[in-house]
Specification:
Its EC number is 2.7.9.2. The protein is of the alpha/beta class. It has 29 helices and 29 strands. The protein folds into four domains: 176 residues, ATP-grasp fold, A domain (Dna Ligase, domain 1); 125 residues, ATP-grasp fold, B domain (D-amino Acid Aminotransferase, Chain A, domain 1, 2-Layer Sandwich), CATH 3.30.470.20; 104 residues, 3-Layer(bba) Sandwich (Glucose Oxidase, domain 1); 289 residues, TIM Barrel (Alpha-Beta Barrel).
Length: 784
């Protein structure tokens, strides 16, 4: 039974069961239950003699989708069709029957409980099963299904890729009496980033599965433990709840009645009771905890507790926190609220950092990625100069290209002569958390190789010498070590997602707490190959091209699973292809931004497009059901006809997989009803292109940069009308352009009813709070 285990038994009963045993031992209210140990699973497969056949069946080529499907099916067949040894069967049923009350059989939750030493947590992400409201007739099968979940396609793929032997994997199962919750949720007993005595509680109606899975947007309550009072209450629109069906006993999802949808879930008294229990849990473990809880008939039950692992080691050092320019709250604010946009870029020029005399400013431009760093200049004129860029250097080049990403990751700072806030250098620098100045004009000519400089990515200046407030290049840590910690996520009805340009930024993007990825660009993965798609396919084969795309997409999809990841097919202009091997035949267009790009190129030259779709089909077969495909520069229903034809040829059913289009031209905005009727599930605004095509302003042309305005009334009208039409037709809308990070645009979109906003990595936190403020204001206005 659970009361017989504790933290020392993780290797036997797994993390969930060990934690529950600890809570029971501490006298906390935990529903009774028992664990089917990892040893029981091991004895089951060995004594039945299926272990060798099982492990042989799943020892397949992880890149072979058909083999993965067969392996999963065979493993499931072996486990589910092998009968329990009578002794094990009776022991499980006996323990289950002991939980019966008043002669009625118990409803239980059956949950996988991984042993800590088996695999990294990510290897089980989205794979371990949980079954709710299980009764005796289904219990043994559900236990087996938990065991079989070790051998889903994704789990097999992970272990094969990482060289982890399948035979070394064990798993336990928790069987616990269900709490037929009236309300439930999660609680952080301390601030998950700073460790401050601030409790954050999320709550919704019904079973907690809806909150944990992200099916419902819960209420959010913040409680200050020092002042012993509720600081903030955010009441969400809770559209659905998961409950036990009174007739069948199964877990069902129901619509919440209108009265309760916007009703507050927790009273102040219930919050106080939860906080008191949370403090007891934290005291018991000696560390802040992430707790799952439920309330039934006025009684609180603790369902699970785990330590919060995202608290910064330097959280208590205010000076250190304020100086963390690469990954702090101020970093996001600089991009979201400062004058870093194209229309305000002039205010950066000639401004000295930190109030010093501007006499020592050597070069100035646009502050594209915040932070202050000092280091030695490394001038990069050609790709073969990239090896000269070492960790801690300030990389200076005319403009960056995808091939330069490895060097950009090593650099302490980046300076480019060309480009604006939406250039490759600006986008990638922000995603990597590397301070950057773009559009400096003459950096490669004025700065000298080896010269010590200080780069200010907020103000857009490069000054001579080192600064006491800057990170030293010699002591510079790789970007991977400076990712932002998971913040307290404001709960909003409008989803806030994140843009990702390169797979390397996936983990940093996931750490923002975003609701998913609103835009994952394929083109940076393709361009980094150094060859055009046609040339790469000719040299290495279609399968190898698919493999490259799968590897990049999978890295991001793994980080976010099961949160949705929206992947855009290739959208690179011809001038970028011309720089690659095999690009000699690319047309020389006067303005590539208006040229042969996006879906028009994909439909005209379909072979690479077919391979992109084939890669998506393989990803779906691997179990990545969180992927959504998005097509760029679509104008009308004729484009949709071509797209869906290729999707079906690739084995992707447009009726069962979510897909949509970018709204980047006035034509697509004005044709939105036809696009919706053609079958799209969502429409996402690309404001960089929509603005330039609406206002006739080339966003890469410095002579008209001051006329580029995403908040122009004409642009806003196109966006607003499109959202209104989509809402009437049941099509989701989102924004993934640069403007999604601006407070004014956020307020406009929320008021119009956009479904989601996708922001740059460094602006997610600010957009979350801006969305929350706007929703609260709208809610207050509606009741005043």
């Amino acid at each position: 039974m659970l009361e017989d285990v504790d933290a020392d038994d993780v290797g036997t009963v797994g993390g969930k069961a060990a934690s529950l045993g600890e809570l029971i031992g501490a006298g906390l209210p935990v529903p009774p239950g028992f664990a089917v140990t990892a040893g029981t699973y091991r004895a089951f497969i060995e004594e039945a003699g299926i272990d060798d056949e099982l492990f042989d069946a799943v020892d397949v080529d992880p890149e072979d989708s058909a083999a993965l499907r067969e392996a999963e099916a065979r493993a499931e067949e072996l486990i589910l069709e092998t009968p329990f040894p009578e002794e094990v069967r009776e022991e499980i049923l006996e323990q289950y029957r002991s939980m019966a009350e008043d002669g009625e059989e118990a409803f239980v939750a059956v949950r996988s409980s991984a042993t800590a030493e088996d695999l990294p947590d990510s290897s089980f992400a989205g794979q371990q099963e949980t079954f709710l409201n299980v009764r005796e007739d289904d219990l043994l099968r559900r236990v087996k299904e938990c065991w079989a979940s070790l051998f889903t396609q994704r789990a097999i793929y992970y272990r094969q890729q990482r060289g982890f032997p399948h035979e070394d994997v064990d798993i336990a199962v928790v069987v616990q009496r269900m709490v037929d919750a009236d309300k439930s949720g999660v609680m952080f007993t301390s601030h998950p980033s700073t460790g401050e005595p601030q409790v954050t509680i999320e709550a919704a109606w019904g079973l907690g599965e809806a909150v944990v899975s992200g099916t419902v947007s819960p209420d959010n309550y913040v409680y200050d433990r020092e002042r012993a009072e509720v600081d903030a209450v955010t009441v969400a629109d809770k559209k659905v709840e998961m409950v036990k069906d009174a007739e069948t006993g199964e877990t069902v999802q129901l619509d919440v009645d209108e009265e309760r949808r916007t009703e507050r879930v927790l009273s102040d008294a219930e919050i106080g009771d939860l906080v008191a229990l949370g403090e007891r849990v934290e005291d018991h473990y000696g560390a802040p905890q992430d707790v799952e809880w439920a309330i039934y008939d006025g009684e609180i039950y603790m369902l699970q507790s785990r330590p919060i692992t995202t608290i910064r080691e330097d959280a208590g050092d205010e000076a250190g926190a304020s100086g963390d320019s690469a990954a702090g709250e101020g970093a996001g604010a600089a991009t979201a609220d400062g004058d870093g946009g194209p229309t305000g870029s002039g205010s950066n020029h000639g401004t000295a950092a930190n109030g010093d005399d501007d006499a020592d400013v050597l070069v100035d431009g646009l502050g594209a990625s915040p932070g202050i760093v000092s280091g030695a200049v490394r001038i990069v004129h050609k790709l073969d100069h990239l090896d000269q860029v070492q960790e801690g250097d300030v990389m200076v080049t005319e403009m960056t290209m995808p091939d330069m990403v490895p060097a950009m990751k090593r650099a302490a700072g980046i300076v480019t002569d060309e480009g604006g806030m939406t250039s490759h250098a600006a986008i990638i620098s922000r995603e990597l958390g590397v301070p950057a100045v773009v559009g400096a004009g003459n950096g490669t000519r004025v700065l000298e190789d080896g010269q010590q400089v200080t780069l200010d990515g907020d103000k857009g200046t490069i000054r001579a010498g080192e600064s006491a407030s800057a990170e030293s290049g010699e002591e510079f840590e790789p970007v991977e070590a400076a990712r932002p910690e998971t913040p307290v996520k404001p709960m909003t009805a409008t989803e806030v997602k994140v843009n990702v340009s390169i797979p390397e930024a996936g983990e940093r993007a996931a750490a923002t707490g975003a609701d998913g990825v609103g835009l994952l660009r394929i083109e940076h993965m393709v361009l980094s190959l150094g060859k055009t798609p046609e040339k790469y396919i000719a040299d290495h084969g279609a399968r190898a091209y698919q493999d490259e795309l799968i590897e990049g997409v999978r890295r991001v999809a793994d980080e976010f699973y099961p949160r949705p990841v929206r992947v855009r097919t290739i959208d690179a202009p011809t001038d970028e292809f011309r720089e690659l091997e095999g690009g000699g035949g690319e047309p020389n267009e006067h303005n590539p931004m208006l040229g042969w790009r996006g879906i028009r190129r994909s439909l005209d030259k379909p072979e690479p497009f077919r391979q992109e779709l084939a890669a998506f089909a393989r990803l779906y077969d691997m179990g990545y059901d969180n992927l959504e495909v998005m097509f760029p520069l679509v104008n009308d229903a004729k484009d949709i006809e071509g797209i869906t034809g290729h999707m079906r040829e690739a084995g992707i059913d447009p009726e069962t997989h979510r897909w949509g289009v970018m709204i980047e031209t006035p034509a697509s905005a004005l044709q939105i009803e036809e696009l919706a009727n053609a079958g799209i599930d969502f429409a996402s605004f690309g404001t960089n292109d929509l603005t330039q095509y609406t206002l006739a302003v080339d966003r890469n042309n410095e002579h008209v940069a001051d006329r580029f305005d995403e908040l122009h009334p004409a642009v806003l009208r196109l966006i607003g009308d499109t959202i209104e039409t989509c809402r009437e037709l049941g099509v989701d809308t989102s924004i993934c352009g640069q403007a999604g990070s601006k407070p004014e645009m956020v307020e406009f979109l929320v008021e119009k009813g956009v479904a989601s906003i996708s922001a740059n990595i460094d602006a997610v936190r600010d957009v979350q709070h801006e969305v929350k403020r706007t929703e609260q204001r709208l809610l207050l206005d509606s009741v005043r």
